[in-house]
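Q: Could you predict the 3D structure of DNA-3-methyladenine glycosylase II?
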Amino acid sequence: MLLNTDEYEDARQSRDPRFDGRFFIGVLTTGIYCRPICRVRIPKKENIQLYRSAAGAAEAGFRPCLRCRPESSPGTPAWIGTPYKVSRALQLIAKGSLDEGSVETLAAQLSIGPRQLTRLFQQHVGASPIAVAQTQRLHFAKKLIDETRLPLSEICFAAGFGSVRRFNAVFQNTYGRSPKELRKRKKADRSEAIEVKLSYRPPLDWKAMLAYLEYRKIPGVEYIDFDTNTYSRTIFLDGKAGDIQVKFSEQENFITLKINFPDTRHLFHIVEKVRLLFDLKADSEEIEKFFKQDKLLKKVAKKNPGTRVTGCWDGFEVTVRAILGQQVTVKAATTLAGRVATKYGQAYAGSIPELTHIFPAAKKIATADLDGMGIVGQRIQAIKTVADKIAKKEIVFDGILETEDFVKSICEIKGIGEWTAYYVALRVLNDPNAFPYSDLILRRAAAPPGVTLTPKKLLERAEVWKPWRAYAVILLWKHYQQEMKNKK
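A: Sure. Here are the predicted structure tokens for DNA-3-methyladenine glycosylase II:
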């Protein structure tokens, strides 16, 4: 789907980083497509076509630019201007659903037909689901070639290619060069850890995100260092343990992700989870523009630019943490979560001394004895029931279920109410519209001073915040905290 060049002309001419990944420029005279921030000479307006996604430009026959490297863009925000089915499908593709599955299977998971899904993709993304998946694999492989010293054979499978032969053929056809020839451009020194840079659109209030995570970190599993602006944690995938470290910079619009993990086949999955954890694909400019129509959120958004929804690494971990936090302080819940990790988690020894444990898997907790740890009996039962259902795959966090259906399902567990369910949805499902409307702080923050809205009244108030209610939640939590500080 071609975009109107007039709408984006100012951003293209000024190379505005806020528009990086929101559109891509196909240059008719060269057959190459670029990011709007590309430093090459700006082509004439009559010689370009604009595309909503890199996959759309690629499907139209354009080759990715070797200078601005479209694979390094923040990516197209999956939810901007797209219906729920498309945004969910994009998230599932990003998680690798088409690496081994088919469009038919993907469509069935979303309860629509494959032709309808393809038609929706062409309408809203400008490319087919297969083209999106192929571009995703290609871009990730190119990123690893440019930024790491991984052997090309490992990059091939890390990016989801089925064979080295196919890997070489796709690169030759796309770039006119083999992966080996592209690797010759690499100048970085060899290092033991794998490091990649992940871009985002400014602004991004990463300091607030680090503070949010610091307040809720699980001792031994997570560690935040404010002196170096880093977030670190242990990870566990496919029976293997490792750790990640995310570093933010005051000057650059990207994070540096360092990965210590023994199996490179999981690299794409790890990178995508980090993007979701820090909401790197979001478009703060678009969201804040939307909130300008609301008298309250207009002021709050202006005061807190770059607000994002902090995601999570593991859905079960966040669910346990949320249950432990019922009717106790955040600090107390953090202490309890640390006890669970220390007693039942796998010991870990890596390069970061503060990381000592892997958070236990659902299967382990389902049969664990949690008595004598300071956890209330009702919450013990809720945690063990959730663990059992996750272990049996009766509860999954893959984002296929719509949020309302997910909440209804998890609320069937005794001891889990709507607040806990919606909070989990907010952080785990990456739904920009998730809204824990029974939250006491929200009901106070959205009301005039001294007034507390009922959950029903808050829901009515929040109608105008759709489809960005999750961002409204974060803004209102910030607003309430700031107001409380001002009163002291």
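Q: Anything worth pointing out?
A: The domain at 196-289+304-431 is CATH 1.10.340.30 (Endonuclease III; domain 1).
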